[in-house]
Amino acid sequence: MTASYAPPGQVVTRFAPSPTGRLHLGHAASALRAHDYARARGGRFLLRIEDIDPGRSRDAFVAGIEEDLRWLGLVPDGPVWRQSTRMDVYAEARERLRGSGLLYACFCTRADIAAAATAPHGPEGIVYPGTCRALPAEEVTRRLRDGCPHAWRLAVDRASGSAGPLTWHDEHVGTIRCDPKLFGDVVLARKEVPTSYHLAVTVDDAAQGVTDVVRGRDLFEATHVHRLLQALLGLPTPRYRHHPLTLDADGRRLAKRHGAPALAALREGGGDAETILVALRADIARSCSPSGDRATISAL
Ligand code: GLU
Fold it and tell me: Who wins on pLDDT, 183 or 125?
């Protein structure tokens, strides 16, 4: 039941942005936390580009991420991994899960799912109502043979049952009982790519030997799914540190849609990387104090 969290040894952290836009101060704060956590322990800080979404990822944004990190002096160790080059590895993990009978093909469109109005909501929106879980085997075979577009979903009840009770550890919260059912039957392989965020991130954290996942609190719940996948795939469980999200002066999460300035814009406007790092580190320290539960960038 208990997991042996990352063994003693060199700390490895990673910053894992999706190249769908330019980085802003919230990204910088997250990268800085992962960077400083590793450096303070003589560990390694990795950069992984999560570009599994061919429709939204752009090479120009990958170059921008590397440029912004260089400007801030957050230099990653080792080669930069790109998830788009690892589709065969994810496909293999998917096939293993499929071979264990824990995945089922889902032919639903977004509209089909949205139309199931009674579906409850989970951390990622509507929880899939399980429509395709009930399809007769002959019908699934026919649709697959006919080439109908399909995703692969995890039968989360069955998977949780086969994994047994699990826990994971967050350095801020303590030991947590794994509850992946919050998300329902998540997609592990999309219609157009043989993976989803959940599968790729779990496989890669293990493949890169990440010992400490330092990332925003918005991904806290997703860790329930990742912990279950680690158990199913026989992968080690890192320690987790889900940090508070950086907020703007109005208390809103920094985001492009709320007008958060890109690091590139700050740089082009004459911003100084050292000043930004000092301000971010001060905000991070405040958010770590017993009274602070959020990081703001009011100092900038
Ligand atoms: N690629 C994810 C994002 O940009 C982060 C993944 C993670 O840190 O686990 O939101």
Answer: 183
Per the CATH hierarchy, to which homologous superfamily does domain 100-190 belong? Glutamyl-tRNA Synthetase; Domain 3 (3.90.800.10)
For residue range 3-38, what is the model confidence (pLDDT) as tens digits? 456 666 899 999 999 999 999 999 999 999 999 999
Q: Which residue out of 58, 219, 253 has the highest number of ligand 1 atoms within 8 Å of its CB and is therefore the one to mutate?
A: 219
Is residue 208 within 6 Å of ligand 1 at its C-beta? no
Exposed/middle/buried for residue 192 (C-beta within 10 Å: 0-12, 13-18, 19+): exposed
Residue nearest to atom 4 of ligand 1 (CA): 17
Distances (CA, A) of 132 to 148, 238, 239: 13, 33, 35
CATH class, 12-87+198-296 region: alpha beta
Catalytic residue among 56, 70, 142, 256: 256
Sorted by sequence, the CB contacts under 8 Å of residue 209 that are 6+ apart come out as: 12
Domain range summary for the chain, segments of one domain joined by +: 12-87+198-296, 100-190
Against a cut of 0.90, is the pTM above it? yes
Active site residue 181: no
